[in-house]
From TrEMBL:
The lineage of its organism: Bacteria, Bacillati, Bacillota, Bacilli, Bacillales. This is UDP-N-acetylmuramoylalanine--D-glutamate ligase. It comes from the Bacteria. GO terms for molecular function: ATP binding; UDP-N-acetylmuramoylalanine-D-glutamate ligase activity. NCBIfam families: murD. PANTHER family: UDP-N-ACETYLMURAMOYLALANINE--D-GLUTAMATE LIGASE. It catalyses: UDP-N-acetyl-alpha-D-muramoyl-L-alanine + D-glutamate + ATP = UDP-N-acetyl-alpha-D-muramoyl-L-alanyl-D-glutamate + ADP + phosphate + H(+). HAMAP family: MurD. Residues 117-291 form the Mur ligase central domain. InterPro entries: Mur-like_cat_sf (IPR036565), Mur_ligase_C (IPR004101), Mur_ligase_C_dom_sf (IPR036615), Mur_ligase_cen (IPR013221), MurD (IPR005762). ATP binds at G119, T120, N121, G122, K123, T124, T125.
């Protein structure tokens, strides 16, 4: 960890707790800042705030009072989940205060190489693949960020000859100033999180921020099949390494249908890859590019791709019961992710879907639902999901209260050879605090089937 002096004796307000807020507060306190923490949850119900209070950190809970801005703070560190429309954050911006997220802190203190991964879909798989490839090559790597381990915690222990592979959301990237990975990746860009961002343009700009501070010594691995994305990163100073699943690239990463190549050199045969689904080729190509640029051998890359079958909550095989296979794709929080999951199967499928209503219509799922025999719908979007399934020609539609009831219903209608797929196409927040909790409840319910 770099002995960073930039926060010594500065008044810093941390808004919002959870894992990233707690980690940022403790780090800033360690770096000599005068930290005040503000969280909406009352102190009596707020274990995180109580923990920080015990460390001598000032804590204000129960609301986000705009009056806090009169206390002379020099900067704000914001939990990524708090929108910029929050009155306290709007007030801070109006006053010209920097509003950062904890990944900026991680960059400022990190001695390790940073590989940053963003995109609408595939971030977790790509991040995990890169981490596994580096580890397989007998090098030390940490998977951090939006994948579950807070980046500024990892940055305190990662050494100069080690790598931090950080999964980054658009929410986190909106709060950076100097953050500049030596290798950055944008897997793809589709409409998503438009309840948080004011427009798709703002969302794309937030994702493209991953490369805004990179230099000519750095690399940007980017999806060449998306013209809008290529246009959004055209300003980068980094060396662009394109990848394509649709055409062969002599300079970049692509496939001839038999092997995956980088800069014209064969890296791995498609038949050696265990991870299913056409959509995962994007993630695999991006991971190959990052691993090779980091110095990982092709042998280590091939070994990982021959063993890696997926990450938890992303088309995760859970169990086979009575010749019925159950898959947990709770991380599918948007339509495209569910399309990709459905397209990975050809056998009769029972789709469990629904969740937070962000105003989307789900008719785009229609082309991917030809093999869906039953749709089991739940959550705020249950009726919209039912309408989309009906319009796609699905005749068996079952409405249930939640994921537990959905598993029970699926077990009753499934037949030998079927797939039961939890792929909600929606965020979880109408019923569950995170997609991980939703997926864990699914796994538990499936494992209880007798």
């Amino acid at each position: 960890m770099i002995d960073y002096k930039g926060y010594q004796n500065k008044k810093v307000l941390v808004v919002g707790l959870a894992k990233s807020g707690v980690a940022a507060s403790l780090l800033l306190h360690r770096l000599g800042a005068f930290v005040t923490v503000n969280d909406w949850k009352p102190l009596s119900e707020n274990k995180d705030a109580q923990q920080l209070l015990d460390q001598g950190i000032k804590v204000i809970t129960g609301s986000h009072p705009v009056e806090l801005l009169d206390e002379g703070f020099e900067l704000i560190v914001k939990n990524p989940g708090i929108p910029y429309s929050n009155p306290l954050i709007k007030g801070a911006i109006a006053k010209g205060l920097p509003v950062l997220t904890e990944v900026e802190l991680a960059y400022q203190i990190s001695e390790a190489d940073i590989i940053g991964v963003t995109g609408t879909n595939g971030k977790t798989t790509t991040t995990t693949l890169i981490h596994e490839m580096i580890t397989k090559d007998q090098k030390k790597s940490y998977a951090a960020g939006n994948i579950g381990t807070v980046a500024c915690e990892v940055a305190q222990i990662a050494k100069p000859d080690e790598a931090m592979v950080i999964e980054l959301s658009s929410f986190q990237l909106m709060g950076i100033r100097q953050f500049a990975p030596s290798i950055s990746i944008i897997t793809n860009i589709y409409d998503a999180h438009l309840d948080y961002h004011s427009s798709k343009e703002e969302y794309v700009e937030a994702k493209a921020a991953i490369t805004k501070n990179q230099t000519a010594d750095d690399y940007l691995i980017v999806n060449a099949d998306q013209e809008d994305l290529m246009a959004a990163v055209s300003h980068t100073k980094a060396k662009i390494v394109p990848f394509s699943t649709k055409r062969f690239l002599q300079d970049g990463i692509s496939s001839d249908g038999d092997k995956i190549y980088m800069n014209g050199e064969a890296v791995v045969a498609i038949r050696e890859i265990v991870l299913p689904g056409r959509h995962n080729l994007e993630n695999i190509m991006a991971a190959i590019g990052a691993a090779r640029l980091y110095g990982v051998s092709d042998d280590s890359i091939r070994k990982v791709l021959g063993e890696f079958s997926g990450v938890k909550h992303r088309t995760q095989f859970v169990r086979e019961w009575k010749d019925i296979k159950f898959y947990n794709d709770s991380k599918a929080t948007n339509i495209l992710a569910t399309q990709s999951a459905l397209d990975a199967f050809t056998v009769p499928t029972i789709l469990l879907c629904g969740g937070l209503d962000r105003g989307n219509s789900f008719d785009e799922l229609s082309d991917s639902m030809s093999h869906v025999k039953t749709a089991i719908v739940f959550g705020e979007t249950a009726e919209k999901m039912a309408d989309a399934a009906k319009n796609a020609g699905v005749t068996d539609i079952i409405r249930v209260k939640d994921v537990n009831e959905a598993v029970t219903a699926a077990a009753e209608v499934a037949a030998s050879g079927d797939v039961v797929l939890l792929s909600p196409a929606c965020a979880s927040w109408d019923q569950y605090p995170t997609f991980e909790v939703r997926g864990d409840i699914f796994i538990e319910a499936v494992n209880k089937l007798k």
